[in-house]
Amino acid sequence: MTTIAIETTATPAAVTVTGTEVFIPLNKLKKHPNNARKTPHSEASIEAKAASIHAKGILQNLVVEPELDAHGAATGFYLVSIGEGRRLAQLLRVKREQIKKTEPIRCVIDTVNDASEISLDENVTREDLSPADQFERFRELAETRGWGAEEIAARFGVTAPVVRQRMRWVQSAPS
Question: Taking every annotated instance into account, which residue ranges of this chain make up the domain ParB-like N-terminal (predicted)?
């Protein structure tokens, strides 16, 4: 995969090769109108993503395509096909003054796949971590890194009481 940086003044016309990894300023990213998710993300979901990104950065690239005007010319913006929740979490971090609105966001250009299809695919084929696995990982972090419930909660966007409850569940679960 090729990686390049895009300056805040760059236009998408120069970068349209599918699979190219680019860094695009946050304020140049927009929700794709063909995004499969029409029901807004919950505040809790965006809060959790923002906490995770603050602690670890964005772990998965956003997938974007250049926005084109009615004449097919690049507008200078990119439409987010995959990763809208991560974009919203970053906007929350801007609001909290943790990052600037021009924060470079790692994205992959995709001008081949249908945006509505890949957006649907990402959301339908995903499988959440089972509660037992999640609880076990919390315990492991507490033991191996010495993190308390507050640190774990801050890094994963949940509350400390939830972490403590889940860790107790693991301890009381039959082997």
Answer: 22-124
pLDDT in tens, 116-174: 999 999 888 888 877 788 888 888 999 999 999 999 988 888 888 888 888 886 556 55
The CATH number covering residue 42 comes to: 3.90.1530.10
Spatial distance between the Cα atoms of 151 and 139, rounded to a whole number of angstroms? 12
Q: Where are the alpha helices (DSSP H) in 6-83?
A: 43-56
CA distances from 32 to 65, 83, 119 (A): 9, 10, 9
Asked if residue 99 and residue 75 are part of one domain, the reply reads: yes
Residues 12 and 89 in one domain: yes
Chain-centroid distance of CA 6 in Å reads: 19
- What ranges make up the beta strands (E) of the chain? 3-5, 21-25, 29-31, 62-68, 74-82, 104-109
Q: What tokens does 149 get?
A: 């419930």
- For the cut 90, the answer to whether the pLDDT of residue 70 exceeds it is yes
- Indicate if 95 and 149 belong to the same structural domain: no
For residue 101, give the DSSP letter: T
pTM reported for the whole predicted model = 0.79
Residue 80's CB is within 10 A of a number of other CB atoms, namely 24
